[in-house]
Amino acid sequence: MNYGWASVDDARLAIRFQGRRARLGSSHYATPMFELINTGGPMFMVPLTLLLLAVIGLIIAGFVKPDARRTALLLHVGVFAAVWGILGQTLGLISALDAIEAMGGVSPAMLAGGLKVSFVTTVTGLSVLTLALAGWTAIRYRSGG
Fold first, then answer.
1. Rounded to whole angstroms, what are the CA distances from 22 to 18, 27, 50?
2. In which band, very low, low, confident or very high, does the pLDDT at 118 lie, cut at 50, 70 and 90?
3. Dist. CA 99–CA 43, nearest whole Å
């Protein structure tokens, strides 16, 4: 099963071509953000990027005109981003373990590369949650509540 996450073959290619990417520079990719989305898997990273933009918009709107509903929505979006990131990691690990089972074994370097890739969505989701919590705290402190 492929859940839209990097498989073991993708991890092997990423390890093999990591040196070439460093030599080629960023001209191969449009921006580092697109590379991060591609590494974490578009199925989970695109929604997390949209949730990041929503959190930024809600923080800006909260500073312009504080509203209790908008502030609560900010927290809910942040928590949803964290849960979505953990779901992405879990499904990615299941997919990677299925591929390892099919291959019969992998090298420790390939396993470490796959585990590193699996944490991209979790770190991104928790980063969005951290930004949402910081924005929520700042808005509440500014509004005196």
1. 6, 10, 28
2. confident
3. 19
Question: If pLDDT is split at 50, 70 and 90, which confidence band does 9 have?
Answer: low
pTM passes above 0.85: no
DSSP string, 16-81: HHHHHHHHHGGGGSS-HHHHHHHHH-HHHHHHHHHHHHHHHHHHHHHHHS--HHHHHHHHHHHHHH
Please choose, from the candidates 122, 50, 48, the residue with its C-alpha nearest in 3D space to the C-alpha of residue 86: 122
In the numeric block, which tokens belong to residue 124? 């991104």
Side chain identity, residue 97: L
Which residue, chain included where needed, has tokens 């964290």? Answer: 82
| Beta-carbon-side half-sphere exposure of residue 127 (alpha carbons within 13 Å) | 11
Is residue 84 within 8 A of residue 47, CB to CB? The reply is yes
Residue 19 CA to residue 10 CA, distance in Å, equals 15
